[in-house]
UniProtKB/TrEMBL annotation:
Record protein name field: Bifunctional diguanylate cyclase/phosphodiesterase
Start and end residues of each EAL domain: 24-278
Organism: Litchfieldella rifensis
């Protein structure tokens, strides 16, 4: 049984959303059932390169298509998945989905990477490497990276050297590596410099007010310079306005993600918007996918 303590901040969300439908079934069983019935799916949010002004990737974000409550965000269920026996099967499914989408884009002539949020145990047990290897073969993705393994800044790796070597191996299996939500917590310089990273993803709490507050600009400018000095690309999350986008671009930020560029969308919508036309449209925010 899943311990209430481990749920942390997700507790309230569970109580609010799931209890009315619970019928005495525990939260873990409900979520396990939802996952097994295919009610958990991935939404995709575009990642823009400021350099080429094209979409170079999509981050996969978990959603629960609840039969009664509608579409629920990850705060309602992802904690239960990643702290239970579902963690490994979910992680494998997640990487498989990313591979399937990457292949779909490649077949259409586009080179885009799919970002996935990996859980700590999926990394530390090395299970994600097996999933990468299987997926890469299954979808014939051998020629170029297809996935971005996002690792949370707040992760406490039990053995940093081991984490470094596992993530290093991931590069050889088609994955780039990004440090997620950087600047939201401890902002571990050790992680930023020692993990084999391609990208630092600046958390949206830092991006907010970047166009209006000098202290935010100085903070982000510092991260951009530090990232570049360490040969990492820097991505700003949570871009909600053209003013924020322009400021970040002028500051030398490499990549951006946020509602202003595109909202997370279901797979069907993604395909309709981005793969149905060769030309930039309003539905794609005026951007084209990268052809590599
Ligand atoms: P994250 O990885 O930092 O993902 C970005 C979050 O910011 C997403 O929230 C996205 O919808 C939201 N976002 C993007 N642009 C904007 C914006 O312009 N403004 C605002 N206000 N928000 C924006 P979401 O989808 O609710 O996901 C929350 C977190 O849940 C993710 O944060 C990630 O840490 C976690 N998560 C999502 N899917 C998975 C998963 O499959 N596995 C694991 N382990 N964690 C996941
Ligand atoms: Mg992420
Ligand atoms: Mg993030
Ligand atoms: Mg974040």
């Amino acid at each position: 049984m899943y311990e209430a303590k481990q749920r942390g901040k997700n507790c309230i969300a569970f109580a609010d959303v799931i209890s009315p439908t619970a019928d005495g079934e525990d939260v873990f069983s409900i979520i396990k059932g939802a996952f097994e019935r295919g009610q958990v799916e991935l939404f995709y949010q575009p990642i823009l390169s400021f350099q080429c002004n094209e979409i170079v990737g999509f981050e996969a974000l978990a959603r629960w298509r609840h039969p009664k409550q509608g579409i629920l965000g990850p705060e309602h269920f992802i904690g239960v998945i990643t702290h239970s026996a579902l963690s490994l099967p979910y992680g494998q499914w997640l990487i498989d989905q990313a591979g399937r989408m990457a292949q779909r884009f490649r077949e259409a002539g586009y080179q885009v990477l799919i970002g996935v949020n990996l859980s700590q145990d999926h990394i530390e047990t090395g299970a994600f490497l097996e999933a990468l290897s299987t997926t890469r073969t299954r979808y014939d993705l051998m020629t170029a990276p297809f996935l971005i393994a996002e690792v949370l800044e707040s992760t406490h790796f039990h053995d940093l050297d081991l984490a470094c070597s596992l993530l290093q191996e991931a590069h050889a299996l088609g994955a780039e590596v990004a440090l997620d939500d950087f600047g939201s917590g401890i902002s571990s310089i050790t992680y930023a410099s020692q993990l084999p990273l391609n990208t630092l993803k600046i958390d949206r709490t830092a991006t907010r007010h970047v166009d209006s507050r000098l202290d935010r600009q100085q903070f982000i400018s510092g991260i951009i310079h530090m990232g570049h000095a360490m040969q990492r690309q820097v991505l700003a999350e949570g871009i909600e306005s053209q003013a924020q986008l322009d400021t970040l671009k002028a500051m030398g930020c490499d990549l951006g993600q946020g509602y202003h560029i595109g909202r997370p969308m279901a797979e069907g919508e993604l395909i309709a918007r981005y793969l149905s036309s060769q030309h930039p449209t309003e539905a794609t925010g005026g951007y084209l996918l990268c052809r590599g």
